[in-house]
Amino acid sequence: MSITSTVRERAAPLAVSVRGVGRSFAGATRHEPERVVLRGIDLEVAAGEIVALIGPSGCGKSTLLREVSGLDAPTVGTVSIGARPVTGIDLRCAVAFQEPRLLPWRTIEKNVSLGLPRGTDSVAGARRVAELLKLVGLSESTALRPRQVSGGMAQRVSLARALSRGPGVLVLDEPFGALDALTRLRMQDLLLDVHSAEPATILLVTHDVDEALYLADRVVLLGQDPDGPSGSSIRRIIRVPGSRPRDRGDADLAHLRAELLDGLGVNSHHQTTTASTARDFR
Ligand SMILES: Nc1ncnc2c1ncn2[C@@H]1O[C@H](COP(=O)(O)OP(=O)(O)OP(=O)(O)O)[C@@H](O)[C@H]1O
């Protein structure tokens, strides 16, 4: 899907700096020990960069996204967006999840407009919503309600709503995880088109190693060091070669896929020769 440029009524992309971040949760009862989920996370994300986070289920990927967006606060360490620390829900950052979380009684257009910054002039707001709906290919569907659209369309609405805030940072938690394989590939291309038109810094959690390698400038592998103290840390950071859009069948990517699957504890030789099972590692 090719996208023409839109008038940008948004902030410039912002760098994200994660320094010494750890997060522990108290045990469910007084007798249960504290649970360390993240430990010593240091990550510098450049303005406009796309970084994919992968790691085994429960290793703390969503928790790290919550620290960046200010939905949760780290136990130790700091997160900064641009030069300013994140101290609570941060309006410079927009979040989208695996479920689109739309209001069922509102139209698609209205759902997107809910993301506009408070106090946006109504004419400018309507123009911005129309631009975003065009950007995600939904200009013909503005008056529909969420139950009348497909899962992929609903996810595009969710993306447009996130962008309507004009975020410097876009945090996406498994945004395409619930979609069928073909819709997912299309959404990956759409996200790259959106990123070219409105280049926010993107932090994205995915379970799909191929998706990470297709979309990201760098892939960050989170996980527990088997010989280290409890809590996930960054095990590996891989810079993905080549410029986007990448060739999904690129031999270099196959090599990196093997390396990442290895890092996830999957038998990579078998996985790289069996493409269908190499996708969607959980
Ligand atoms: N508010 C909370 N209170 C207690 N424990 C929590 C809380 N939030 C997260 N956790 C725990 O932190 C751990 C990491 O959760 P998180 O959702 O970040 O993992 P994840 O890597 O995103 O998992 P998945 O890939 O399955 O989505 C889990 O064991 C979870 O139970």
From TrEMBL:
Does the keyword Translocase belong to this entry? no
All copies of the ABC transporter domain together span 16-249
Kindly give the Pfam families that the UniProt entry links to this protein.
Answer: ABC_tran (PF00005)
Q: Key word Transferase present in the record? A: no
Q: Source species, please?
A: Marisediminicola antarctica
Q: Which domain of life is it from?
A: Bacteria
The UniProt entry, under SUPFAM superfamilies, shows: P-loop containing nucleoside triphosphate hydrolases
Q: Which PROSITE patterns match?
A: ABC_TRANSPORTER_1, ABC_TRANSPORTER_2
Q: Name one GO molecular function term.
A: ATP binding
Among Gene3D superfamilies, the record links this protein to: P-loop containing nucleotide triphosphate hydrolases (3.40.50.300)
Coiled-coil positions are none
Keyword set, alphabetical order: ATP-binding, Nucleotide-binding, Transport
Q: What is the protein name stated in its UniProt record?
A: ABC transporter
